[in-house]
Specification:
Elements: E1 9-16, E2 28-35, E3 40-44, H1 51-59, E4 66-71, E5 74-75, E6 83-86, H2 98-108, H3 113-126, H4 142-154, E7 160-164, H5 172-189, E8 193-197, H6 200-206, E9 209-213, E10 220-225, H7 228-235, H8 244-262
Parallel strand pairs: 3-8, 3-9, 6-7, 7-8
Antiparallel strand pairs: 1-2, 1-4, 4-5, 9-10
Helix pairs in contact: 2-3, 2-4, 3-4
The structure holds adenosine-5'-diphosphate and magnesium ion.
Length: 263
């Protein structure tokens, strides 16, 4: 499914030191990572290891203090709709309708009203919010807000979707539904997704590739392809999570992280 062509994102020896007086040193250190078009990269690591820091560098919110991060060969410099971001807590405007929120990016770019309406319909359908467009965001459940946030990002047709623990605040059942939704969107659209989680199951259930980060200061300690998301799409159920293979991979990752934490 994933074509190994030219890398879309190239992270080259990136470090970031917030430079605080706490003497904590860099949040991430010498991180190198190439992401290819169509990959679903799940980055997993313990809390505080620098996952969000890495995502913020890719989003262009902060600049690395060492190394470079580029997209399509161009150094990432500031924010851009080319890189859509979805956080754990939605950054929607609560008092606006879902439609207005989802169409916001396009209206900022002065796209014609009729086109915006069409695109909004399309992306609301994509995230199964067809009947909710006229509701205000505060009327939605947590899962629905995250679906609206995903539609708001996708409508700008970003080259990469950056997701920072987007389902972290949801209950188990809703989380499972959201995982199925994002997996199907990925399979259908061939989007490139960079997805952060501290949940080993989530990383293995979603990623076509799983990257494991060490404890603070964050470094990459493992990076491997994961077959499960494609299996789940093929089988149309996620029973593979109980398979020997899945449980063995899960155990290995958890052992790797706990060993790293003890060192
Ligand atoms: N704006 C900031 N200023 C100073 N230190 C920060 C800032 N943001 C994060 N940190 C520190 O950087 C480290 C990594 O944080 P973060 O990237 O949020 O980790 P994660 O997302 O993996 O939990 C932590 O030690 C955190 O306290
Ligand atoms: Mg974080």
């Amino acid at each position: 499914m994933v074509e190994k062509t030219k890398e879309l994102i190239s992270v080259d020896n990136v470090s970031l030191d917030y430079g605080g007086k706490d003497g904590n040193g860099p949040a991430i250190k010498d991180v190198s990572l190439d992401i290819y078009p169509g990959e679903f990269v799940c980055v997993m690591g313990p809390s505080g290891c620098g996952k969000s820091t890495l995502l913020k560098i890719l989003a262009g919110f902060i600049k690395p203090t060492g190394g470079t991060a580029s997209l399509d060969g161009n150094k990432i410099n500031g924010i851009d709709a080319q890189r859509g971001v979805v956080f754990q807590n939605s950054t929607l405007y609560e008092w606006y309708s879902v439609k207005k929120n989802v169409g916001f990016g396009l209206s900022m770019r002065h796209v014609a009203k009729a086109t915006i309406a069409e695109e909004v319909e399309k992306y609301l359908a994509e995230v199964k919010l067809d009947d909710w467009g006229d509701k205000k965001v505060f009327e939605l459940s947590g899962g629905m807000k995250q679906r609206a946030a995903i539609a708001s990002a996708l409508i700008n047709k970003p080259e990469i979707l950056l997701m920072d623990e987007p389902f972290g605040a949801l209950d188990a059942l809703t989380k499972n539904q959201m995982q199925n939704l994002i997996r199907r969107i990925w399979a259908k659209s061939h989007n490139t997704i960079f997805f952060i989680t501290h949940d080993v199951d989530e990383a293995l259930l979603l990623g076509s590739r799983v990257v494991v980060m060490s404890k603070h200061p964050g470094r990459i300690i493992a990076d491997f392809p994961a077959p499960f998301t494609t299996d789940i799409l093929r089988d149309n159920d996620d029973d593979i999570r109980y398979s020997k293979d899945f449980l063995a991979k899960r155990k290995k990752i958890l052992e790797m992280i706990s060993q790293d934490i003890l060192e």
